[in-house]
Amino acid sequence: MDRKGILIVISGFSGAGKGTLVKGLMSRYTNYAFSISATTRKPRAGEENGVEYFFKTREEFMNMIDNNKLIEYAQYVGNFYGTPKEYVDSQLDSGKDVILEIEIQGALKVKEKFPDTLLLFVTPPNATVLKQRLVGRGTEDFETIQCRLRRATQEAEGIEQYDYLIVNDDLDECIVHTHNIIQGEHSRASRNISKIEQIREELKSF
Amino acid sequence: MDRKGILIVISGFSGAGKGTLVKGLMSRYTNYAFSISATTRKPRAGEENGVEYFFKTREEFMNMIDNNKLIEYAQYVGNFYGTPKEYVDSQLDSGKDVILEIEIQGALKVKEKFPDTLLLFVTPPNATVLKQRLVGRGTEDFETIQCRLRRATQEAEGIEQYDYLIVNDDLDECIVHTHNIIQGEHSRASRNISKIEQIREELKSF
């Protein structure tokens, strides 16, 4: 391939269908790689190292932080989660577009460190559908629902900082549309500076 | 339609196939309107008012300038050419993406006045192909070729100010790719501020 991959962060409301969207992209197209997180959480039954996560001891994880081997990391319920840099870099260099599925705080940290990162925010078509999905099937208690609504409200505060707002109404259409957005981004002038300079130099040489 | 159209400026090197690309977009998809320019140039045989151009007297054209009825205008070989605002606005309001085919100076003026304008620059796959097209079929004299190369060199100076660099290698692929870029742009967070605010307000009201 003659082009470098794009680092993509997909975030979105819980219940927006991020996971299904990512799986759809991965299975339908060959140009994507999914970034596997490192974590200090213990593997659950059936989870394999290098499949769901790279499982690390706390010491190994701290070493990764100290040696700048993580693009971003966060602590959640006592465990660390992070994005290993090496895997992402090698996939980008081979031309793959690499997808990270992380929440907004991590997304903004990645964008700060790598301004070329493409930030996608996934939402259901409207807030009523969102509420239905947050409320769930009537099995959740009041507190859980309130907690989810609070979280969605917080998440909504940062949407403008994303590059694109992806409305997931029909999943199939959403997969194709997201793919088109990402492939279109490869043609952004700001991602083709060396190609532009090359054309310019050649023109001058004639 | 529940969305407003996008104003699109297509520029590019002479010989890049802009015109064919625009015709392809217009004939293959229903969401585009092509902006017809106003001009003080006399109609040529077969040209109809409102088809190739809106033909205006110099006085009429000056009135359009004075009454802010042109998005941009320029003088070229003694004649005025400009983009009538009313037609563009009405098409955008009806949800059509409106295409202007103008050169870089006009493109940058439009972007300054309407920052939401999408600027696309079309180029052949590389400078050798570009040179072949500029040099033509061997029928042009040295001066004409030099003039074309100079113009391309000037045009190349401004490419970074465009949003996308469209490489026209295979025309069919280029039409689809350009369409995908434009449709993807409709999902830009910056073009969906009111939708984002609406989701936010609804979430707060729950």
What would your notes on this structure say?
Two copies of one chain form a homodimer. Chain A is of the alpha/beta class and 206 residues long. Chain A is built from eight helices and nine strands. Chain A has helices at 18-28, 58-66, 85-93, 104-113, 127-135, 142-156, 171-185, 193-205; strands spanning 7-12, 32-34, 38-39, 54-55, 70-76, 79-84, 97-101, 118-123, 164-167. In chain A, strands 2-7-1-8-9 form a five-stranded parallel sheet, with helices on both faces. Chain A has a four-stranded mixed sheet with strand order 4-3-6-5. In chain A, helix 1 packs across helix 7 (171-185). Chain A starts with 6 loop residues before the first strand and ends with a helix. Chain A binds chain B through residues 121, 123, 126-128, 130-131, 149, 152-153, 156-157, 159-167, 177, 180-181, 183-185, 187-190, 192-193, 195-196, 198-200, 202-204, 206, and chain B through 121, 123, 126-128, 130-131, 149, 152-153, 156-157, 159-167, 177, 180-181, 183-185, 187-190, 192-193, 195-196, 198-200, 202-204, 206.
